[in-house]
Specification:
Hypothetical protein af1432
Length: 399
């Protein structure tokens, strides 16, 4: 019980510190920029409400495992970053409004938490900074809000290929169009000098976004890929031991992994994760009899990723339904390799009609209700079948 209370108590302390920093920031704006007392009180109340929403959004991210970086045991990373940004918003108020790097704030907070946290937290920072300036800047504030929301939503959905070109371009276009239109329509006489701050803002935003996203990719996305490089090596220590204990299981696993890789890539899924599940789905024989309990113990001893263990549990545990699409890929890869090897073992010279055989295997598994609770879509199911049917040349290696 104490172990479960400790992380929660740590988060509560961080949230209290966050509130204190917020009050201090509003107080600083009040004292430095000579805010009217009414505006200071209004700002303080709205900021406090905003922080409550941020806390709620972060707790929801922990509960539903929707944090962008997937880290659930390091809330201080988000809290400290957010407190620094809040303090920075006091300084930002002294800058020309057209030079505020707001999109960077939204992106930074989003990748440290989730989309709701990033949007609300960034908006709180904009509110603190804007409270110190006159009401004429409010059109710019709305531009920043739209740009920040777009940035938070776009970068939070970056995939493993880390294609940042389009999201960053869209953010820059929104920021450029919004600042340009607002600036031109809010002044009586236009001059080229007026574009200096917006242009600098665009350049600084671009540089900072690229820096933050590249750092994020190196720390989170590519770190996850590196984690699978060693695990997916067929000559790693655990698989070498499987090869000694059961050569047949090892060699069969190599064929299954080939199909796991091909199908998961065709479906746009996390291929390294599915390959890892395919490689380790027979390691239970190392502990003696092949069953889920032996597989679980071996995988936990080797610190396999939790998502891989979840796939293996659905694949091997008879009491756990098949839910993940990745599990369906592993299941069908194993079914097809086993079926073809069985037919070749009975008659090595047999001529198989692979499309008909694969179609029959898929039909039989569907009729057996294997995929009733699975998240796999009809499109993914048909694509998976198509990949197996197109691999005619590979099946000869199973003889």
């Amino acid at each position: 019980m104490e172990e479960s209370k400790a992380p929660r108590n740590k988060r509560i302390k961080l949230y209290i510190a966050l509130m204190i920093i917020s009050v201090a920031a509003v107080t600083g704006v009040y004292l430095i920029y000579k805010l009217p007392e009414i505006r200071a009180i209004q700002t303080l109340v709205i900021v406090a409400l905003g922080q409550i929403v941020v806390i709620f959004a972060y707790e929801s991210g922990l509960l539903y495992e929707s944090l962008v970086n997937g880290i659930t045991d390091r809330p201080e990373m988000f809290a400290v970053t957010y407190m620094i940004v809040i303090a920075g918003s006091v300084i930002m108020a002294a800058m020309p409004v057209t030079a505020w790097p707001v999109a960077v704030i939204y992106v930074l907070l989003t990748i440290m938490s989730n989309i709701p946290c990033g949007i609300v937290g960034g908006s709180v920072c904009v509110l603190i900074a804007s409270s110190a300036v006159d009401s004429g800047v409010y059109p710019f504030i709305y531009v920043y809000l739209l740009t920040g929301i777009a940035a938070a939503v776009l970068v939070a959905h970056l995939d493993e290929q880390f294609r940042i070109g389009l999201p960053v371009t869209i953010v820059e276009i929104i920021l450029f169009a919004g600042l340009g239109a607002t600036l031109i329509t809010s002044v009586s006489s236009f001059s080229i000098e007026m574009l200096i701050y917006p242009v600098v803002n665009l350049a600084v935003t671009l540089v900072l976004l690229l820096f933050i996203l590249k750092a994020y990719s190196a720390r989170v996305i590519f770190k996850e890929e590196d984690k699978y490089i060693e695990l997916n090596d067929p000559e790693c220590l655990l698989l070498t031991e499987l090869k000694k204990v059961s050569p047949d299981d090892y060699h069969k696993t190599v064929h299954i992994v080939y199909f796991c890789d091909r199908v998961s890539a065709a479906l746009g899924l996390d291929a390294p994760k599915v390959k890892c599940a395919g490689l380790y789905h027979r390691v239970g024989v190392i502990g003696g009899e092949y069953n889920w309990e032996n597989t679980r113990m071996v995988c936990e001893e080797q610190n396999l990723p939790a998502e891989v263990i979840d796939i293996l549990r659905e694949f091997e545990d008879p009491d756990t339904p098949m839910v993940h699409t990745e599990t369906a890929i592993l299941f069908m890869s194993e079914c097809i390799v086993t079926s073809i090897q069985y037919l070749f073992a009975k008659n090595k010279e047999i001529k198989l009609e692979y499309p008909s055989l694969i179609d029959a295997i898929f039909k039989q598994r569907v009729e057996a209700g294997v995929f009733k609770q699975c998240d796999i879509s009809i499109r993914q199911f048909e694509m998976m079948k198509k990949v197996f049917m197109e691999e005619k040349l590979y099946y000869d290696f199973l003889r």
